[in-house]
Structure formats: C-alpha cells, structure tokens
Amino acid sequence: MGMLRRLTANISLDLRHGRKIAIASDLINSEKLDAAEDIVNSVLGRYPANAEALHLAGFIAHRRGDQHRAVELISSAIRHAPDNGLFHFNLGNALLASGATEAGIEALQNSTKLDPERADAWINLGLALIEAGRHPEAVSAFERVLEIRQERDISLAFASALVGAGTMRNEPGMVDRAIALLESKPKSGYERHAAGVILARALEHRNRFSEAIAQYQALLELDPEHVGIRNNLARCQIRLGLADEARQHYRLCVKAAPDKFHAFSALLAGLNYDPDLTPDRHEAEVRNWEKQLASPHYPLNPKFANERDPERPLKIGYLSPDLRQHVVGHHFLPMLEHRSRDRFSVVCYHIGKKEDDMSRRIAALSDDWRHLHGASDDEIADIIRQDRIDILVDLSGHTSNTRPLVLARKPAPVQVSWLGYFDTTGLATMDWFITDPYSSPPDQKQYFSERLHRMPHTRLYYHPYPDMPEVGALPARRNGYITFGCLNNLAKINTQVLDLWAEILAASPTSRLLIQTVALCDKLNLERFRALCVERGMDPYRLDLRPAMPLEKFAQTYREIDIALDPFPYCGGLTSFDALWMGVPVVTLEQQRLVGRQTLAMLMNLELPDLVARTKTDYVSIALGLGNDWTKLERWRSDLRPRFLRSPLIDHRGFAGELERTYRFFWKTWCMENPGAA
C-alpha cells in the first residue's frame, strides 16, 4: 500500500512538472523569456536533471545570445535524453550561432537521424553545409526537405548549394538546375537581391557572361553603392574582353573600398590590357596602390632569427592561390620534382579555396604543405615567420585571389616574385623579381620596385600537358588557304590588334582568321565581337570564331592553324608555348614592358628572331611572308618540337639548378647586406 502511494505521488509530480514545461514553452513562443525562465528554474530547482527543463533553459540562453551557456545546458539535456531529436536540433543551432560550424553540423546530422521528418533540421543542416563549403552534401539535405515538405520554399538556399556543388564537381547540369530554379521563382525584397547574386554567379560559371552582367547591373540599380556587386560586374567584363569598361568599375570599387574584393589588384593587372598605358601612368597607379594598401603594413624594423650562414641548407616557401589544377600549379610541378632536397627544403602555402589532385601531388613533393584559405593576412604572415622561411617566393602577384599584403608584412628575410605574374608587385618589401635577358632588357628597371635578377636564358619554361597531340600536317595543304589564329584571352585582342589583323587579311584575300577563347562561349558577346571585326573591314565569312574547348582538347585547334598571331601590348604566355610546341610559328610585336615580351623571349630561346616584329609594319610583313611560303611553314611545323627539346625552354632539370643557384645568390646577398646577430 505504501509503495502504491509513493508511485501515485511521483506520477502527480511529473504531471505537474509537465504542465509547467508546457506553460514555459508557450511563454517562449510569446517572447516572454523572463517569465519562461522563472518557471524553468523552478523546475530545475527541484529536478536539476530534468532533460526538458535543461533543454528549455538552454533554448532561452540561445535566444538571448548566450551561446556558450546554451550549448552547456542543451548538452546536459542530451546526456539525460540522448534520443531526443529536438534537443540535438537546438544544440546544432546554438553551436552554429557560436561559430562552431563543424560541431553544429554534427549535431544537426544527429537530429536528422533521430527525427528524419524534421524539415527544419534538414534546412539548417543544408545552410550549415553551404557555410562549410560542403555543397554536394547540402544539395542532398535540401532534396530531403523537398521529399518531406514540398511546399517549403527553399529555392534560394537550394540554388546556392547546387551552384557550389556543380562548380566543385565540375557538373554543369547542377548549375543549370540552379539557374532554372531561380528563373522559375521570381523574388521580391531582400530575396530578390539574394536570388540575383546567386543567379549571376551561376551564369558566370556557365560562361553566360552577358546575362550575368545584366543581373549585376540590375542589382546595382537597386544598390549602387554595393562594391562587391560592382567588382563582380567588372570581372565579367574582363572575361568578355571589355577591358576599358571593367577598368572604370574597378576604379569605382577602389574609390569606395580600396581594401575589399581585390579590386585594386584587379585594376593593376587589368592595366596591362591597355594599349595606351604609359610608363609614368603605370608607375603612378602602382604607387597609389602601395600608398593606400601596402605601406601601412610595412614593418618599421623587421628582425629575423634566421641563421646568417651563406652556405647552409635553405628553407624556401612558395605562396599562391593556384597550387591546384591551374597553369601555375601545372608549371610549378617540375621545380619540385627536380629540386635538391639536401640543400633546399620546401614549404607550400596554398591560399586558394580548392584542393585537388594537383594540390595533393604538389603537397607530396614538398616537405610541408599549409592550406591557409580563410586565414587573415596577419595569420598567414605569422605562420610563415614561425616556419623560419629563408626565401619566400610569391607565385601570384596581382592575379585572382592573391594576398600581396601578406608580403607587405615582410614575414621572410628574402622575398621574391616569380612564375605567376609578369609585372611589379609595387611592394618595397619585395626584394627580387626573377626575369631573363629577353623579357627584361637593360631599360626595364623603371617598371619595377623589385631588383631584377636575370636568369641566363629564360624566366619561364614549358611543361606540356600529358595529352598534347602530335603535330599534324600543314592545314594550308589540306584547305588550300592560310589560316591565321589566336587562342588568347579576348581582353588582349583590343581594337589596335584587330586593325592590324584586318590589314593582314586584306592583303591575303584567301586567308582565314580563327579565334578561339572562353569569351566566345557567350553568344551575345560572340555577335558583339564579330560586329567589331566587321567594322574593321573583315569579311565575316572569313572569320572562324569559336568558344573555348576543354583543356584536354584545347591544343587540337593548333592542328587547324598555320600561323599564330600574337596580341599586344599583352602578348601570349602559355598559348604561345602551346602553339610553338604544336609546330605553329607565332608572329609577335616587340613591346617595352615584360608583359608584351613573353613570346619574344620564347622565340629568342628557340633561335627564331625572324618572327619578332619591331614595328607594326614589320608584323604585317612577317605574317604575309610566312603565308606565302608554305614550304617554310611545313619545315617549321616538323622542326619546332625538336627545336624545343634542344632548347632551355624544356630543360626542367637545368632550370631547377639555375633557380636554386639564384636562390643561393639571393641568400648570400642578404647575409652580406645584413651582417651581425639577429
């Protein structure tokens, strides 16, 4: 009888407690947090292990912004009731609000396992996975939401996940699905802005740049001061070859927020497309960047603990966002393969977002690999200092996703620019720029803040992609006419270049001009560019304008080209290497600055100075002369690749040795100029 009485009393207490929990829940929903907390505390005063009360106390803390206490209380509730999906859901929300993204994702995953029908848990999980860059998993989460509750409008988040996943996996169908989803569900208010941003990004990924530009322009009409949108607009314009328009927008970005969105670096890089750029104006632009952004970070009196022994083994650091499937990553690889491991150790600092198979190959060939995407400039510089790097080599300059302000902080005794950039960084903290006698003749110092060091033969070497096809027969023999061609970025093909090419076509009435580039994937831009050519007197029926091909098929186009025409003032780089490797001679116009001398340096190393024009008249004459001598073209077509193999341009082992001797020279110079204890 006594046991029954005690059992009844316990049941009565539980029911009374349950009513209090229900009342507290209603008060929370009515935003009466103080009253709810009083009730919850009264329950916990008598039952400190009550899971429901602990959970509500944690939820109240979460609503008040005290995430640390929220996590502590809800975690305690889960220890007492580990199978409650709602508890795990709110723990995940509190963890995410505290910035613990991965832990939050884990908690939300537990919630979805315990309660697979909880749509909100799947939604928040999808959003967190986007935040973590785990877009394919986010897509799966949102697809589960649609299975549970088809009426929930998750189109914005779902589209964002689809774009991220499609880009990451190189699956265009996912990006197209996002575009269709956004276009089918127009938004208003804030959601209109968010949808426009995601849609514009998706259109960019699908090379539909004109449509992306229209989206960005519409967004700017809603918010003319939005620097990020303007920056993205300029980026699309560069991709379409609209360099003048892009520079105007980059200048507005710089004026509004010089330290954001890499607009200042993009402006400096974009100046190289300008055929009217003078040395004085170039220097003024670089100095303006340095004054506004770089010089505030210069250390007053940098101290280095590195041992000042000119002959000891050295620690080389390489800094780049492109240590991945990228022209820089691909061409950097041979230097790691042929380095002297006993004399030089290597640490790679990858500041790009993506890691891929190429990243893993580079990491395996390095002594240490640091993936530092998301770290601040100060954090990256501190890591480099802690690693005691002797020579820090920057491989990116002012290209995309670069971090020049890390170099402004001078984290290493010797800092060097090489490989991925073709111009000065403008940094007083950069010691050397690696070049060669052809890229930088004696008058080049005026363009650089760095000291120039000329390698004996070339600053660049060629690393053919493994699937490069064999050299084919001369296309002119098959076609009955000469095909001139260019596969460069469309921004390099300015109106002065087109005028010269129109002159060549006019003087060679049976010839054709083939241009292939990413910007021509955009149908609207293709027609704009065709009209630009026709305005200059080119017969549209003699123009073969093509969108870019996948990388593995890219070089096949050179089997259809007899003579490559180099643009100016920004000449070809890898495109010229590829053309010459495929047996296609490249006619180039000598320029003052290094950015216009890359092809010239290749030709001089191949002992082909006759392909270098000193004037525009010479350029036309050389192109026409080649077009009239098919026998010579055939001879070069069969001889260029063997000539490459005899040249310094493909001697990777020899170049690696020269580069390491260069590093040793830099180090000895620093030791001599900085004697004494650290």
TL;DR?
Helices cover 55% and strands 9% of the residues. It is of the alpha/beta class.
Key terms for this structure?
single chain, 678 residues, alpha/beta, 6-stranded parallel β-sheet, 55% helix, 9% strand, globular, disordered N terminus
Word description of this protein:
The strands form 2 sheets. A 7-stranded parallel β-sheet has the order 3-2-1-4-5-6-7, covered by helices on one side. It has a 6-stranded parallel β-sheet with strand order 10-9-8-11-12-13, with helices on both faces. The chain contains 29 helices and 13 strands. The N and C termini lie far apart (about 85 Å). Helix 1 packs parallel to helix 3 (about 50-65). Helix content is about 55%, strand content about 10%. The chain is of the alpha/beta class and about 675 residues long.
What's the helix and strand layout?
Layout (H helix, E strand, L loop, with lengths): L1 H28 L3 H14 L4 H14 L2 H14 L4 H13 L3 H14 L4 H13 L3 H14 L6 H15 L2 H13 L5 H16 L3 H14 L4 H13 L3 H14 L6 H8 L8 H16 L19 E7 L6 H11 L6 E7 L6 H9 L2 E4 L5 H10 L4 E4 L9 H5 L5 E4 L14 E4 L15 E4 L20 H5 L3 E4 L8 H13 L4 E6 L5 H13 L7 E5 L3 H4 L8 E3 L8 H8 L4 E4 L8 H8 L6 E2 L2 H12 L2 H17 L5 H22 L5
Parallel strand pairs: 1-2, 1-4, 2-3, 4-5, 5-6, 6-7, 8-9, 8-11, 9-10, 11-12, 12-13
Helix pairs in contact: 1-2, 1-3, 2-3, 3-4, 3-5, 4-5, 5-6, 6-7, 7-8, 8-9, 9-10, 9-11, 10-11, 11-12, 12-13, 13-14, 14-15, 17-18, 22-27
